[in-house]
Description:
Layout: H1 20-26, E1 28-34, E2 37-42, H2 48-58, E3 61-66, H3 69-79, H4 87-96, H5 109-116, H6 119-134, E4 139-144, E5 149-155, E6 158-161, H7 170-180, E7 192-200, E8 203-214, E9 217-226, H8 234-237, H9 241-251, E10 256-261, H10 268-279, E11 286-290, E12 301-304, H11 313-321, E13 327-330, H12 336-347, E14 351-356, H13 361-370, H14 375-381, E15 382-394, E16 399-402, H15 406-411, E17 424-427, E18 438-449, H16 452-459, H17 464-473, H18 479-488, H19 494-500
Helix pairs in contact: 4-6, 5-7, 6-7, 11-12, 12-14, 13-17, 14-16, 16-17
Amino acid sequence: MHISFQEYPREPVVVNNISVRFMRQSKIIPLKMEEGILKVAMADPDDFYTVDALKLACRLNVDVCRGREDEILDAIERLYGAGSQSLETIIEEADRDSDDISAGSIEDADHLRDLASEAPIIRLVNRLILNAVDLRASDIHFEPFEHEFKVRYRVDGVLHEVESPPNRLQAAIISRVKIMAKIDIAERRLPQDGRIKLRVSDKEIDFRVSTLPTLFGESLVMRILDRETLVLDLKKLGFPSELRDEYMDLVSQPYGMILVTGPTGSGKTSTLYTTLAKINSSEKKIITLEEPVEYQLAGVNQIQVNPKVGMSFANGLRSIVRQDPDIILVGEIRDRETAEIAIQSALTGHLLFSTLHTNDAAGAVTRLLDMKVENFLLSSTLLGVLAQRLVRVICPDCKEVIKPEEKLLRSMGISPDQVADREFFAGKGCETCRGTGFKGRTAIFEYLAVNDRIRREIMAKSSTERIKDVAIENGMMVLRQDGWRKVREGITTIQEVLRVTLEK
């Protein structure tokens, strides 16, 4: 006897470790979960191998009943992402099913929870997340304005607006994401943070969720942390071969401080994670102190900063030193206290990595001196500074030869005569890159090696410009020069290099 169509759930039953692909292939769907027993409908209840696999995956007792194959597949499609439906169709359906949303009702947390638990809202949020992952987006932005509710994806460092839901669905969508992130949906006056772990397209993906109250409602950003996109290879990150060799010699030092600088979103974390993965071995103890821990590294002790309980970078670093580490990574040096403890750690036999938000490599030195770090301590501990930016890579499927504008060449300090016989490339825009002309990103670098001449400048508390000039005399290649090299190699465009470098 088959279960009736009415017995299928109206909203998805979330079960850990069970993918939608498995449901479709096995023609199985969760119906409800009560007291540790998962009730499911199956087209073939006698398929004991699938039932055993289900028990093993979800670690629950399973109660199986027979369902019609077409009804099961229809319910899977309806409840778990509506794979065949376009975003436009799902938005229309969610809008049609939410006529009861009124201005007054969004103040009621219970009503918001009910709205956020409606199947159309769940499908809409699922589809927005799925589309973002398919587009390789790094962030999803939900932004409320007076007359519209915008959804934007950050792809390869640039924001792109997607089809946005109606303004009236704003409260339900934000509440749905907050429920997923285990954030208090009743609190709309204070910023909140949360995390979500989801299985999307058979990949385990972490989402970091941040809310912020604005004039017209809560703004919410989801940072997508896909472990599979983490490339632990210096060459793939964009390191030129000669810099790669010099950098590996640097990070093989037994003690000292190495800094990576750049604005938010310039790939500093990826560079440091790749560095730690390269130098990690069973003979070395590595401890990191991060805010937050973005990706888990095998064999590395990772600690998350938590200012609410007094676990700051400075306090955490004091405790780390007592754990007998060989290598320490401090997520960021923000204040004098952290800087002083970091330098003391580097002086006492530890190799310490950290980041600073400065525009170039030379700026890191003067930033630390501005924090009142003693110049003689800094000159004796700092081994090198790596500044970096991310530039978009020309799409290989629509790459074509172009003639660059003279104005752009002159902005790079190049005269058109110097490159008269050289080919330049750009992306025309195609389906692969969704019309942008770019697919993926690579880094451009500026490496400041701290030698005797630079140490003398640190001791003299020289300006950023003076330190930079001395470094260039010593052979330092600045960001724009490395960018120009990648333009000549046909990797990126002049416009991209100009966009991410701050020189005028």
